[in-house]
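Incident log, support desk, overnight shift.

02:14 A customer reports that sequence design results differ from what the structure should imply. Their input is reproduced verbatim below. On-call engineer (initials T.W.) acknowledged and began investigating.
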C-alpha cells in the first residue's frame, strides 16, 4: 500500500492552490515528451463504467486555429453586450483567452458513442460520460502545473463550429478547449479575483445535512 506523508500532502495542497487558469503565455515551445507525459497521467482519471470517453485533439493547423479565434471573438463580443454599464466595462478589460499566444491548443471531446464500458453506470445518468471527461481535464491540468506549464480553459466558443472545423465524428461533444504553454507570470490568486470581477467565496466547503 502506498503511503503519503505530511510533506507530500502539503505539496499537493500547494499544487491545487497554484492550479490557475492561465491566459498569458510565453511563445516557448513545449517538449513533446512533456506533453505526452501529462496526457498519459490524464488517462489515469476515473470514468463511469471505465468508459474512458475522453478524446484529446491537438489543433496545430493555422487556418483551423484562426477559425477558433474568430469564434472566440464573436462570442466574446456577444457576451460583453449582455452586460450593462460598469460590469460591461469590467468585462471588456478582462483577458479571457490565450489563443493567440499559447503554443499548444487542445480540444477535448466526449465520445458519446463509445462502446467501452458497455454502458455501465450511465443508463439513468448519461451525462456521466461528460463528467468523466472533466476529470481527465482536471488531471491533465494538475499534471501540467506540476511540470511548470500553464493551462487555460476557453469556454467562450461555438461548439458546433469547433466540431466542424476540426472534422471530428458527429458523436463527439466538445467539453473543453485548452490553451497550454509556459505562463508569462505566476500568481497565487485567480486572475478574476485580481482584476475585481468576482471574489472567492472562501475555502470552507459548505456541507448540507439532510
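02:41 Re-run completed on a clean worker. Output:
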Amino acid at each position: 500500500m502506498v503511503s503519503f506523508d505530511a510533506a507530500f500532502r502539503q505539496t499537493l495542497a500547494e499544487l491545487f492552490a497554484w492550479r490557475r487558469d492561465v491566459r498569458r503565455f510565453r511563445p516557448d515551445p513545449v517538449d513533446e515528451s512533456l506533453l505526452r507525459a501529462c496526457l498519459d497521467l490524464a488517462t489515469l482519471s476515473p470514468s463511469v463504467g471505465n468508459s474512458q470517453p475522453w478524446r484529446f485533439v491537438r489543433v496545430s493547423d493555422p487556418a483551423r486555429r484562426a477559425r477558433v479565434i474568430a469564434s472566440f471573438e464573436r462570442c466574446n463580443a456577444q457576451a460583453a453586450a449582455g452586460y450593462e454599464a460598469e460590469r460591461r466595462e469590467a468585462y471588456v478589460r478582462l483577458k479571457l483567452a490565450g489563443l493567440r499566444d499559447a503554443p499548444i491548443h487542445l480540444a477535448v471531446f466526449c465520445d458519446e458513442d463509445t462502446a467501452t464500458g458497455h454502458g455501465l453506470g450511465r443508463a439513468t445518468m448519461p451525462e456521466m460520460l461528460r463528467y468523466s471527461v472533466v476529470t481527465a481535464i482536471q488531471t491533465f491540468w494538475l499534471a501540467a502545473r506540476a511540470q511548470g506549464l500553464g493551462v487555460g480553459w476557453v469556454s467562450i466558443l461555438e461548439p458546433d463550429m469547433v466540431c466542424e472545423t476540426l472534422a471530428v465524428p458527429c458523436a463527439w461533444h466538445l467539453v473543453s478547449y485548452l490553451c497550454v504553454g509556459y505562463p508569462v507570470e505566476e500568481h497565487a490568486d485567480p486572475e478574476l479575483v485580481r482584476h475585481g470581477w468576482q471574489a472567492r467565496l472562501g475555502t470552507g466547503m459548505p456541507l448540507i445535512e439532510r
